[in-house]
Amino acid sequence: MPSPSTNDLWIRRYHPAPDARTRLVCLPHAGGSASYFVPVSRALSPKVEVLAVQYPGRQDRMSEPGIPTIEELADAVTREVLPWADRPLALFGHSMGASLGYEVALRLEAAGVVPTGVFVSGRRAPSRFRPETVHERGDDGLVAEIKALAGTNSSLLGDEDVLRMILPAIRNDYKAAETYNPGPGRELTCPVTALIGDSDPKATVADARAWEGHTKGAFDYRVFPGGHFYLNDCVPQILAMITEHLDGHRAGSAH
C-alpha cells in the first residue's frame, strides 16, 4: 500500500479501513470533489475502504490547472489508483465520473488489474455521443445549467467570490465531458452496472442501457426516481446494491 505522502493529493481515504477486503474507487461529477463521497465512505467503512478521487482545480487543489480531457484525466487517475490494487477494486462514477470510471477500468484491465465491477451513474454510454456546448456558455449560462441540475448548493451560486473560484473547474470538467467521444471497439471484461434517474435531463434509460455494449462481462441497470442527481435521495438503495455486489464477489472468490 502506498504511503499517504505519495497519494494524498489524488486519493482521499476519509475512513481508512486497513482490514477491508475490498476497495471502492469513487469518481465525482463535473465540478464535484472527493468530499461528495464522505457519507459513502462513512457508511461502508470498515467493511469496504472507499478511495475518493480529488481532481485538480478544486478545494485544496484550487491552484492546479484542470485536466482538459477525459482520456488524460483517466491516465492520471489510473497511475494513482494502481498502487491500491493489492486487493479487489470496484469503481463508482457519477455523470462525468462514469465516463472517467469506464476509461480508468479499461486502463486497469490493460495493466492486468480487472475490477470486480464498474458502476456508471447518470451518464449515457460512450456509444450514445451527442454534441453539447454548455462549456462554451458565458458564466450566467453555466450557472443556469448547474442550478437546473441541482448539483451545487444554490446558496453558493449567489456568492460572486465563490463563483469566481469554482467556475473554472466546472467549465473545465464540462468541456472534458462534452467533448469525450472515444469511438467504438473497446470493451471491458468486468461487470458493468448502469444507474439512472427516470427523469434525468442529461440521459435517458435507453442511454444507460446502451452501456451493455461496452463490456463482455455481466451487465445490469437500475432505474431510480429522480433527475440527474437522483442519487442524493437514493443513497441507502445504492449502497445496498454496491454492498451486495462486493459481498457476491467475496463469496465467489472464497469458492
Automatic annotation (TrEMBL):
**What biological-process terms (Gene Ontology) are attached?**
lipid biosynthetic process
What Pfam families does the record tag this protein with?
Thioesterase
Tell me the superkingdom of the source. Answer: Bacteria
Entry keyword annotation includes Hydrolase? yes
Span of the signal peptide = none
Give the matching Gene3D superfamilies.
alpha/beta hydrolase (3.40.50.1820)
Please name the GO terms that the record assigns under molecular function.
hydrolase activity
Q: Which SMART domains match?
A: PKS_TE
- Give the matching InterPro entries: AB_hydrolase_fold, TEII, TesA-like, Thioesterase
Q: Quick check: keyword Hydrolase in the entry?
A: yes
Keywords attached to this entry = Hydrolase
- Matching PANTHER family: S-ACYL FATTY ACID SYNTHASE THIOESTERASE, MEDIUM CHAIN, THIOESTERASE
Q: What is this protein called?
A: Thioesterase
Q: Give the species this sequence originates from.
A: Streptomyces tsukubensis (strain DSM 42081 / NBRC 108919 / NRRL 18488 / 9993)
